[in-house]
Amino acid sequence: MNRHRILGLTALAAVLVGFYFGGQAPLDQLQGEYTRIMYVHVPSAWLAYLSFLVTFGASILWLARRKPVYDRIAESSVSVGVFFTALALMTGMIWGYPVWGTFWDWGDARMMTTALMFFVYLGYLALRRSIPDPAMRATRSAVLGIVAFFLVPLSYVSVIIVRTLHQGITVVRPDSPIDGEILLALLSNVGAFTVVYLAFMSVKTAIARGEEELEEQSAAADATPAGAAITAPNLEKVRDV
Amino acid sequence: MTRYRWFVLPAIGAIVVIIGWMVFLSLGENLVYYLTPNEAVEQRAQFPDGERFRLGGQVEAGTLVATADGVEFTVSDGAHEVHVVHEGAPPELFREGVGAIVEGAWDGDVFRSDQLVVKHDEQYQAPEDEGHPYEVPTDA
After folding, report:
1. Most confident of A163-177, A194-208, B30-44, B59-73
2. Do A48 and A117 meet the contact criterion of CB atoms below 8 Å apart?
3. Contact A106/B140, CB-based, under 8 Å?
4. Which residues on chain A are in Cβ contact (under 8 Å) with B94?
5. ipTM beyond 0.90?
6. Hey, which residues does A107 pair with through a beta bridge?
7. pTM exceeds 0.90 for this model
8. Helix or strand or coil: residue A14?
């Protein structure tokens, strides 16, 4: 078994364990069944933050060391992070509609900073597609990968520094007001999603490496004279048609 | 130009978010998401009848009454209470003891609202756990 398959199967097993705990945990007294949306929503948001943190680190390493592997990690992590940001936004809307009574609020700082984070990192992927030269692409996207990261802590603390509709921080505080079994289910899903992140990264960085090799080959092919590949047009056949 | 067409979606999305946020903040004239009942009473002079703002507080036990076109209840932050007359169907999970944010304006001593959302707090408790009343945080 290769690395991708081992990580993929481990991720699947971890997610099944997470779903088991999520199904076993008691429901919040107020939210009822809607509590369970949290077991996808919170791990998704965690992965979004983790992904962009990895991109931030890999971008700094690219600028410092100029090794292609750092650029591949930075790019792959944004791809995964954008996906999980979208998942966090969507599950948030699905939860918000019945629990808050609205699926979107234009004044909520957590929703706004997260949506902004989504579009800025989507812009990161657009930037990569717009620059053909690999070294220039890596450098410019590394700068964006570092600058854009301020949105991550901003999104995280947005619920403490201003009043929002979104609830404040539940888990990372000394007097965590969360039921023990609900917390266990939540943390097991956060762990499971983290393994999913590693599995996705393993495959995505391998794809990025393949794309890089393909790019180098086609660049090399463009550079060599065509030689025997070019022949005179066959005018005899053209006249027959 | 085709290299730049991928920027269209992120650019439009980011602009929509920023404009939507700025429009919301400029409507309220104050940079807080909602006022607590205490603040709303203290700043009563700044908000004449008909001047819209958001008010957030805890729905007091024993005050929730269904009316012909909505609900009436009292929101509190411990310091002050404001009577709210809401027009429209409240959300599914709206009940006494929850945090609520209403949007509307003063009409004399009552607050008339036409938008109501439930503010769930950061507590997640199984039904058998008592002693965790839901509260709207009044700090920050």
Report:
1. A194-208
2. yes
3. no
4. 101
5. no
6. none
7. no
8. helix
